[in-house]
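Lecture 7, part 2: worked example. A protein chain together with coenzyme A.
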Amino acid sequence: MSLVLVETKERIARIELNRADKKNALTVEMYRMIGDALAAAEADPQVRAVLIHGRPDCFCAGNDIGDFLNPPPGKTPASWLFETLPGLSKPVVAAVGGPAVGIGATMLLHCDLVYAAPNARLQFPFVPLGIVPEFGSTLLLPRLAGYQRAAELLLLGRPFGADKALEIGLVNEIVPEERLLAHAREAAAQLAALPPASLRLAKRLLKSGYAGLGERIEEEARLVRERLASPEAKEAFTAFLEKRKPDFSKFS
Ligand code: COA
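Predicted complex, written out as structure tokens:
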């Protein structure tokens, strides 16, 4: 079974993360598949809206930590997503249940409508992992949540629930787990029924307030690449895979 399932039906391109045994952690291959699906949705005149989801009990556990330990040379694999999602002219709806960690949380900042189940557990654990926050989150989250709340979420990197995500404006609505996907699909269908050119223009105008976002995504990605090789990050990744607490006491 493919790690990312893509289906276009009734003018909605549905992208489903499908790596349940690893909590939908994203591998290089999965980033490519999602990037390709987004690019195809953008190019297909039949597609009017995109829906991204995982399983009801797990949206996405972020970048595969094994890949972080042995990153492929060149661009970060997440670049496939960085280069497609923020610039998509068509609206994107996300349905989030269970963990939404790392890029599983930062990608939500680039979606247009986000629905979460009460079991959603979001987290930006970049600093605790010895890297830095990515995907424009250091620019977008303070704007959304205010500086102190963004600093709390991005520096401490602790998990938070659907209520807090709603309070800071990262999600639109909390929807019972059993209704989550249907609810998100209905929202995508409503978007897909709108006049498409008007919708694209409105989205472009809404997004045009974020000057410097592309440069920030690049700067963060450059720093993430540098940090991946750091002893701090190696300790954090190895500790996760060895199922133990990391020890940063020897670092200055
Ligand atoms: N990369 C690689 N493997 C991952 C992973 C990731 N990001 N997230 C989870 N997994 C794997 C676990 O290692 C475990 O594998 P195993 O069964 O071979 O031991 C499996 O997925 C299940 O994960 P587990 O931790 O047992 O599930 P959980 O329900 O207790 O916790 C999470 C779920 C998502 C909260 C937890 O797995 C987690 O914190 N993952 C890391 C998230 C992260 O830091 N991502 C990087 C962000 S930049």
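The chain has a mean pLDDT of 97. Residues 62 and 103 are 5 Å apart (CA to CA). Keep this in mind for problem set question 3.
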